[in-house]
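for the recovery benchmark. tokens below, seq after
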């Protein structure tokens, strides 16, 4: 086992797959010699050559079109969108082309593409860089959407994504890139897409979350256990599409209470979908409404006030106490 940051684990996953499979290509803005804006591809061009790890023009729509064409010709593109706030420039390629390829061709063609992109608040980025837009991807049939919370999952899930025959949107929270290290196996291994992970077992309330909010929720759960003796079960979804509804329902039926935590704005996100499915499948097991802890329904604020805008442990505790006291 090696101790890696999440960015190192992501780099290692691409290295493993570039070495294993000659059809894997890595490209995007500044990913070659510079190794990417966060150095996620550092050293890969030198190791595998300019034909397999290369820079593109500053044009997300071109990156998407290139990825689709390469996927149709038998390659496995790993295309970096430098920040996910720029996804609108490539949204047609992702949602209207790659996501529909298998369906529109009757299964003759597919798009084995990974669209990697950093996102997320708490790091004081300029406008458009931090936006949580995973809800747009969640509503697009044909896409798989992965959001890891730790180095081990990041490497294993990225390898699984690269090997998948359908398009995957792989979102990497910027705040997690270098905030801590974790044990990561050397060489290849996979983490299954669509399988959640129970990161803290409990019996009194279920907290469902993903990405950086896993760590926020764990802090909240630990504080509430110290102050009130409440044992919260915390689920790291890891993948929001497909959603591991079975793990969610099993936990909710055990605890009878649930809170869903997301960094994205409250309306029409992953939390809304999760709550709808709990209500449809397990409402008779609930002793209180399932509530959302999320960011306000406003544009992501400027850096000076983003800490007040983003969910923190205190807001998660407030949500949990509301459900527990209902």
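predicted aa per position
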């Amino acid at each position: 086992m090696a101790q890696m940051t999440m960015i190192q684990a992501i780099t290692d996953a691409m290295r493993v797959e570039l070495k294993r499979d000659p059809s894997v290509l890595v490209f995007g803005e500044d990913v070659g010699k510079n190794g990417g804006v966060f150095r996620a591809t550092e050293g890969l061009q030198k190791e595998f050559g300019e034909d397999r790890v290369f820079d593109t023009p500053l044009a997300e729509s071109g990156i998407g079109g290139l990825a689709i064409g390469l996927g149709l010709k038998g390659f496995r593109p790993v295309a970096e969108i430098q920040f996910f706030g720029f996804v609108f420039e490539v949204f047609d390629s992702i949602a209207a082309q790659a996501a529909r390829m298998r369906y529109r061709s009757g299964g003759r063609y597919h798009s084995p593409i990974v669209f990697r992109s950093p996102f997320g608040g708490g790091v004081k980025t300029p406008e458009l860089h931090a936006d949580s837009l995973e809800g747009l991807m969640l509503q697009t049939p044909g896409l798989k959407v992965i959001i890891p919370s730790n180095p081990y999952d990041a490497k294993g899930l990225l390898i699984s994504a690269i090997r998948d025959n359908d398009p995957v949107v792989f979102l990497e929270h910027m705040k997690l890139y270098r905030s801590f290290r974790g044990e990561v196996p050397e060489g290849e291994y996979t983490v299954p897409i669509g399988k959640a992970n129970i990161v803290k077992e409990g019996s009194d309330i279920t907290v469902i979350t993903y990405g950086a909010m896993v760590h926020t929720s764990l802090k909240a759960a630990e504080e509430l256990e110290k102050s009130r003796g409440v044992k919260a079960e915390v689920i790291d979804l890891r993948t929001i599409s497909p959603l591991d509804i079975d793990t969610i329902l099993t936990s909710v039926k055990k605890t009878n209470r649930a809170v869903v935590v997301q960094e994205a704005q409250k309306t029409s996100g992953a939390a809304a979908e999760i709550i709808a499915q709990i209500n449809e499948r397990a409402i008779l097991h609930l002793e209180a409404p399932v509530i959302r802890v999320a960011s306000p329904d406003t544009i992501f604020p400027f850096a000076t006030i983003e800490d007040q805008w983003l969910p923190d442990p205190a807001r998660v505790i407030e949500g949990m106490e509301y459900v527990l006291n209902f």
